Automatic annotation (TrEMBL):
Catalytic reactions of this protein: prephenate + S-adenosyl-L-methionine = carboxy-S-adenosyl-L-methionine + 3-phenylpyruvate + H2O
Entries under CDD domains matching the protein: AdoMet_MTases
EC identifiers of the protein: 2.1.3.-
Pfam families associated with the record: Methyltransf_25
Enzyme class per UniProt: transferase
Protein's UniProt name: Carboxy-S-adenosyl-L-methionine synthase
Superkingdom, natural source: Bacteria
Keyword S-adenosyl-L-methionine: yes
Family matches, as SUPFAM superfamilies: S-adenosyl-L-methionine-dependent methyltransferases
Cross-referenced PANTHER family: CARBOXY-S-ADENOSYL-L-METHIONINE SYNTHASE, TRANS-ACONITATE 2-METHYLTRANSFERASE-RELATED
Keywords: S-adenosyl-L-methionine, Transferase
Gene3D superfamilies (UniProt xref): Vaccinia Virus protein VP39
Length: 236
């Protein structure tokens, strides 16, 4: 279904309710540059390093796009788990996993208080940015604790740039991207207002430092386009 959520004046801050869940896949594909390609990159990489019956946990799994991509590329059986606090998202995720014949365990949970299952890989795509900074660092530390030795944490985030001139220019580049996807200036401004103080982005360096302080041995940037980046943090 096509995203028309912000064609009308907003009445509340952004949340992942039924209206967003019903158009989430279209919204993500049209709002995040190279969204599908990035998920494919993540899935292919995980499938290249994971072994039979290894566990993958997706925190903030939304409609299960990442886990379904892992299912698509997996050459051996994997244990796939998705957690999200939005019931509407999980309902659509369940429908999609059934349609694709994927064995994915989905559960409603607040990931900031969740006892994260032990896993070889944990993913959080465009999730941390919606968590308040004090809880964000604690969650990343919990992720590190839940990973097995040598395990990986892959997370994607919207980012800001330290240089104000570059930051302003990159915002304009991104706005042009959204216009090219068919969003009107009214829709763009409505969504920006709805996300104010809901989505709180870090700089690329701040994201890396957060992971290192949480206990990860190394952090690499896997993918970057403008003000979006994907990282891989590895546990010692």
């Amino acid at each position: 279904m096509m995203d028309t959520v912000f064609t009308r004046p907003i009445e509340k801050q952004f949340e992942f309710d039924a209206s967003v869940a019903s158009v989430f896949d279209d919204m993500a594909a049209r709002s995040i540059p190279f969204y599908k390609e990035n998920l494919a990159l993540i899935a292919r990489l995980l499938c290249a390093i994971l072994k039979e019956n290894d566990t993958v946990v997706d925190l903030g799994c939304s409609t299960a796009n990442t886990l379904l991509m892992v299912h698509k590329y997996a050459k051996v059986p994997l244990q796939l788990y998705g957690f999200d606090n939005a019931e509407a998202m999980l309902e659509i995720a369940a429908q999609k996993t059934h349609a694709f014949g994927a064995k994915i365990t989905l559960e409603k949970a607040d990931i900031t208080t969740l006892c994260i299952p032990s896993a070889e890989a944990i993913v959080a795509n465009y999730t941390l940015q919606f968590i308040r900074p004090p809880k964000r660092a604690l969650l990343v530390a919990s992720v590190c604790d839940a990973l097995t030795a040598g395990g990986v944490f892959i997370f994607s985030e919207k980012i800001v740039h330290e240089d104000p001139v570059l930051s302003k220019a990159m915002i304009e580049v991104y706005l042009d991207f959204k216009r090219e996807q068919g969003y009107s200036d009214f829709e763009i401004s409505q969504k920006r207002e709805a996300l104010e103080n809901v989505l709180v982005p870090y700089t690329e360096q701040e994201n890396k430092e957060m992971a290192l302080k949480a206990g990860f041995a190394q952090v690499e940037t896997l993918f970057k386009w403008g003000n979006f980046a994907t990282y891989l943090a590895k546990k010692a």
